[in-house]
From TrEMBL:
Function: Has an important function as a repair enzyme for proteins that have been inactivated by oxidation. Catalyzes the reversible oxidation-reduction of methionine sulfoxide in proteins to methionine.
PANTHER family: MITOCHONDRIAL PEPTIDE METHIONINE SULFOXIDE REDUCTASE
SUPFAM superfamilies linked: Peptide methionine sulfoxide reductase (SSF55068)
Keyword vocabulary terms for this entry: Oxidoreductase
Known catalytic reactions: L-methionyl-[protein] + [thioredoxin]-disulfide + H2O = L-methionyl-(S)-S-oxide-[protein] + [thioredoxin]-dithiol; [thioredoxin]-disulfide + L-methionine + H2O = L-methionine (S)-S-oxide + [thioredoxin]-dithiol
Broad EC category: oxidoreductase
Domain Peptide methionine sulphoxide reductase MsrA, first and last residues per copy: 3-153
Family membership: Belongs to the MsrA Met sulfoxide reductase family.
Electron transport as UniProt keyword: no
MF-aspect GO terms: peptide-methionine (S)-S-oxide reductase activity
Active site (record annotation): C10
Upper taxonomic lineage: Bacteria, Bacillati, Bacillota, Clostridia, Lachnospirales
This protein's name: Peptide methionine sulfoxide reductase MsrA
EC number(s) on file: 1.8.4.11
């Protein structure tokens, strides 16, 4: 199994979107790459912890590869907007690709460079190693499965 962490605005929709993709084994929402240990949603939403709402994705590389995951990711975000996706505004809603395996970095950079050809403005999506990931509170996990009519900025 391979793993990657992606941020694309509110994590509820990103998680639900990726959970529906064949080959994705597990998704988990959480807070990535900030400075506060074990942050709460109340802390993260203030944009003062450095964390981003993100989704941990575990996938079976025999069914879907990282390039395919990234192609699907680019479809649901606007990578040229800083600290915002849809109506969600703040640094916690920035876009980011946080890799766990160093060998994934080159695939990610190639994917970003290919995606950049579609835009006049520069892509501002962060590409960094995953430094920290704290799972979000239980009520955020699989939120749109529990609340089918819940808020989502992504067309599912």
């Amino acid at each position: 199994m391979k793993e990657i962490v992606l941020a694309g605005g509110c994590f509820w929709g990103v998680e639900e979107y990726f959970s529906r993709i064949p080959g994705v084994i597990e998704t988990k929402v959480g807070y990535a790459n900030g400075t506060v240990e074990n942050p709460t949603y109340e802390q993260v939403k203030t944009s003062t912890t450095g964390h981003v709402e993100a989704v941990y994705i575990q996938y079976n590389e025999n069914e879907i590869n990282l390039k395919e995951i990234l192609n699907k990711y680019w479809e649901i975000i606007d990578p040229t907007i800083l600290n915002r996706q849809g109506p969600d505004i703040g640094s916690q809603y920035r876009t980011g690709i946080y890799y766990i395996n160093k060998e994934d970095k080159e695939i990610i950079l190639q994917s970003r460079n290919e995606e950049q050809k579609k835009y006049d403005k520069p892509i501002v999506t962060e590409i960094e190693p995953l430094k920290t990931f704290y799972p979000a509170e239980e009520y955020h996990q699989k939120y749109l499965k529990k609340n089918p009519n819940g808020y989502c900025h992504i067309k599912l």
